[in-house]
Write a structure and sequence with these properties.
The protein is of the alpha+beta class. The chain folds into 2 domains: 147 residues, Sandwich (Jelly Rolls), CATH 2.60.120.280; 99 residues, Arc Repressor Mutant, subunit A (Orthogonal Bundle). 37% of the residues lie in helices and 25% in strands. Strands 1, 2, 3, 4, 5, 6, 7, 8 and 9 form a 9-stranded mixed β-sheet that branches. Strand 3 and strand 4 form a beta hairpin. The radius of gyration is 19 Å and the shape is globular.
């Protein structure tokens, strides 16, 4: 096991054990774009992590985990203070797990299993004893876990590049975007439908929800979240959040 500080470098691929675990609490950390031969389960115990992929933006709020299959390029950005656990699995152990990046619910059982796995010594024997049982439970829980809608597909059309340069900035209204990129609303709609499976309005609403969750998870006030996501009042923000999630922001945080 490695307890990492903000300036440590770590490469799970240089170890021989089938499972490598790490634990850390990081503040304002950017991993940089990277990939590894192992699959990674990244569990946020406290705080919020934004994971950028080639064609998706992934949000990892508290008590959720991101499954990243082997070989997938990604960048993890952690704002404020993020307490997390991570385990890396050799490709042979990933065969029955999701083949795409996904955000999953962490069941009480998976949460209990992850802690000793993340804290296990790098020389642990994972083929017998309690650690063999922990590994089996972990793989089963990942495979069966409910997936969360925390992925935002990103359009690849070059005309929309300015829109994606600042993923933390509220995307403009459709009429403003038309003027910014010199394309009609119909053209923009076709691009988003083709490349994200959503209309621009649906995509923008999903962005607002994910950004709201990120801000709430990093301790921002309700009024700040409402302002940053483009709502004129706290009540309008609460109504939007509840319409998208079925819960108020306060209930979601709990």
């Amino acid at each position: 096991m490695a307890w990492l500080d903000a300036h440590a470098t770590f490469d799970a691929d240089r170890f021989q054990a089938p499972v490598i675990g790490i634990a850390s609490t990081l503040s304002d950390h950017n991993s940089g774009l990277h990939r590894h031969q192992r699959g990674q389960l990244l569990y946020t115990r406290q705080g919020c992590t934004r994971i950028t992929l080639a064609q998706q933006l992934c949000l990892l709020p508290p008590s959720r985990a991101a499954w990243i299959p082997p070989g997938v390029s990604h960048r993890a950005v952690m704002q404020q203070s993020v307490d997390y656990r991570s385990i890396y699995l050799i490709p042979e152990l990933c065969a029955a797990l999701p083949q795409q990046v996904c955000v999953i619910e962490v069941s009480p059982l998976l949460r209990a299993v992850l802690e000793p796995m993340a804290l296990a010594d790098f020389a642990t024997d994972w083929q017998q004893g309690k650690f063999a049982h922990l590994l089996g439970l972990c793989l089963s829980e990942i495979a069966d876990a409910a997936q969360q809608p925390m992925l935002l597909p990103l359009p690849q059309d070059k005309r929309l590049a300015p829109l994606l340069k600042t993923p933390e900035r509220l995307p403009p209204e459709l009429q403003v975007l038309e003027q910014q990129i010199g394309a009609s609303s119909r053209t923009i709609g076709r691009i988003f439908q083709r490349e994200t499976g959503m209309s621009y309005q649906q995509w923008r609403q999903q962005w607002r929800l994910m950004r709201a969750m990120e801000l709430l998870a990093t301790g921002r006030s309700l009024s700040y979240c409402a302002f940053e996501t483009g709502f004129a009042s706290d009540s309008a923000f609460i109504a939007f959040f509840k319409s998208m999630t079925g819960r108020t922001p306060g209930h979601w945080l709990k």
